[in-house]
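Appendix B. One record, verbatim.
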Amino acid sequence: MRAAKDIGAGGIEFLPFYNYGYGTPALGHYATYAFGKPAFVDVLTTALETCKAEGLVMDVALGASQGQGVPAKPLTTGLAVQLVYGSLTVESGEEFSGAVPPPNLNWNEDTSFMQPGERFGGSKLIGVSAGAVKSTNQTASQTFVALDEKSLIDLTAEVQNGQLTWRPPIDGNAYVIFATYERYTNQRACVGIPTDVIANGSWVTDKFSAAGAKLVTEFWEQNILTVEVRELLQAVGQHTWEDSMEIQAALYWSESLLDRFKANRGYDPVKYLPLLFHPSTAWGNHGAPYDTTYYLEASEDTGQSKYLQDYRATLDEGYVEYLETLATWAQSIGLSHSCQVAYNIPVDMLAAIPAVAGPELESLGFPEVDMMLQFVGAAHISRHNIVSTEIGAVQTGGYSLTVPGLLSLFHDAFSSGVNLMVVHGMPYGGEEEGSTWPGYTTFQFIYTEMWSPKQPAWQYMNEQMEYTARTQLALQAGNPKTDVAFYLYQDPYRITVKRNGSDLRAAGLSYEYLSPANIISENAKVTGGELDAAGAGYRAFVLDQEDFITAEAAEKLVEFVEAGLPVVIVGALPSKSIGSSSQEAVTKAISRLTQADYPNLKIIDSVDTLVQALNALSVVPRVQVSSQTTGATQNLYHHLRSDGASDFLYVRNKDIPATFDISIEASKDKVPYRLDAWTGKQEAVAVYEHLQGRIRLQVTLQKDQSSLFALGPAPKRSVAHVVSHSSNVAKAFYDDKGRLFIAVDDAEAATVTLSSGETRQIPALIGAENSTLLDIEVGPWNLTVESWVPSLDTTTFKSVKVPINLGLLDVLKPWSEIPAVQNVSGVGIYTADFNSPTLPGGAAVTIIDFGPVLHTLRTWVNGKQLPPIDSFGAQVDISDYLVPAGKRNSIRVEVSSTLFNAVKARVNYIKANGFGPSVPEFYTTAGWQPHGLVGPVTIKTFRRISM
């Protein structure tokens, strides 16, 4: 934890991992250190004390491993329950008399990475029903049976002591008799040893009622919340926390769900329960719970039948109750609640997000910007302006993720408005039974990353972490400002890309998504032509090929249109109600939109003309972009925020290098500043133009590079700025005293036009024949590699550092192409020298460019360390670091590598938990990672001219 603080971490997420809940060779230690045992409480207390001493905050997992359960006596109320069923078939008119079908417990569990349910405990009969079979279809693995809806019958009242006597109608149809049962899932969140209840491990709790939350909070109150822990949590605690749902059930349920269903949906669902065992209600929509799936005849088997929708609406309500119960308890101990909300289970994620103070997603599940935009809108409209992400888990060989790769994931998140990075992860650093060098490795080497001092990059990563912290600081200010809200009904939620968005980005239009539940929230009001003007301020609302809507959302849509909000419908208006009731109300509301002529409502046939439709409705993006590079604007992402006094604009180029013209809405009293998140400097932008209520400026970005701007009050002392210049002016800037300078990249004359209206002519360089404007490639380079290897005792985790002197390199190349170090991990130390430029009066700006940064890079010129260097645009002004003109300068560059090559070279014997990598091919089939300084390293001098 101290090491995390040393590189710039602001807090930690305390996760009692227990090897993902599966146990380790040291399982016997669980009797002492099981979640909730006094020894565990001691560890938590020490962690909290360290946070307090180091100025860190803590999010604390509510349970072992993913935080999804606590120790409890099996079959205790509040543990997770499910529905299962049994069935039998009788022919038309054939009397059945006997025991109702027993439950079929052999449903299709996913045991690839989740704990299976254990088959103990009884099953409680919920109901008995029957239905007529109209057709049967089969695939290689599934049978699909269509039932006649009118034939469905609840036979529960006919059951006596588990016996049923019933004769189906004589109609020529076979009938299926179903018996549906409730039983505990008996899924472990963490294994244990059965010496007592706590040592026996943790069980998954009920996520669809307050009962499951109360089981968790009562366990904490009774076993963890000592006076000391409570006081420390109030001092340094931030959130209680729960990971993404990795829980299984044949059909997700709660002991209270049947009563909730009857009360809120207005009917008894027993005769429809067999229809709910559907692929759409499985974990992650991965497959049908049973090998036979039942659906209604003459209905589309899309997972959107009215009874499935009613079930999921009821499940949504129970899940929100669960979240609200945890939130209330967290507040009672001085914290708030955070979790990775809803996804993987069959509920409406966007409807649940507002119930969580600290909504979180993860880069593993949401790898694309559009996916994250589906998450953040619900948070923003509920005023949860900080959205976190568990970031950096990539399914590949451990120790392979580069620092630029991690930063690129950060940039994706920032582009979507996700503004708190929770880095995955930092493993336990001590010795562990069954593990070899390089130390305890989570997930058996198949996920990144093990960020810790065991990595060669660790000693350099404070620069990247401080860059991240500064960017977050700006992106947590005020409220997001977003141009377009897309309507999104998706229950169950599936993580998929909904739109490429390149046309919107090229037009400068930002967007995110809102669900039916979100648009009926208290902040969803139209003021001054904007939806939620005090928040995101959406300037248009778009429904793209949407069929379903609730009655309340349909009324709200009418309200939006009548209040003047620009609304675009792609295809047809949604006309189907969500659930079995309210179709009449939906039809009535939608008809109001079709029977009147609203100038702000536009219906188009194809999303391909969406931008034109928005233009026709006078929807003006707050940020407009253009570029001379073809297609570049399609890959320029931006996120805008405002706190009233200042605006903050984040821009990120995801593709080819390009120069962009950016025009931002701004009042006349605001001027632009560049916030250099790498160094912490705030610099007034020296080249821009105020025009028609907008600030126009220019930025050049390499691939994956980002830039951060603030628009704020002008300095008290009025300073001229540049509005245009000749092409040989490379840049304009102010010095520390506010004086304006330009840098000219050749010896020719230049022209500059100032905001005062004055045009200045810069003469050609006099005496150019006696001057040196450097444009050189630095080299040769002397290279020494500090190789990180295991000691002779491979059970010792600390690396031995062995120097390898490679001498002079005439040409820079990656280590993977140098035989002596191709399989090496560690730190490379490069040294070289070069001459200083000679210019009359010493008026030079000298820029060094290091080329691609493969991992980390830190540099000294003449013994002085340079400021942190942008990993995606490794250029820095070294003018103030040079010796006098004509003399030699020394340069030292330190680059680090991942630990991947060293691990790959030893893949046959490295172990964690007593086993080697579970997917050795991640190492054996991969090539050696390229590392080192690959250059070319160039130095270019510009003329420095005072304005």
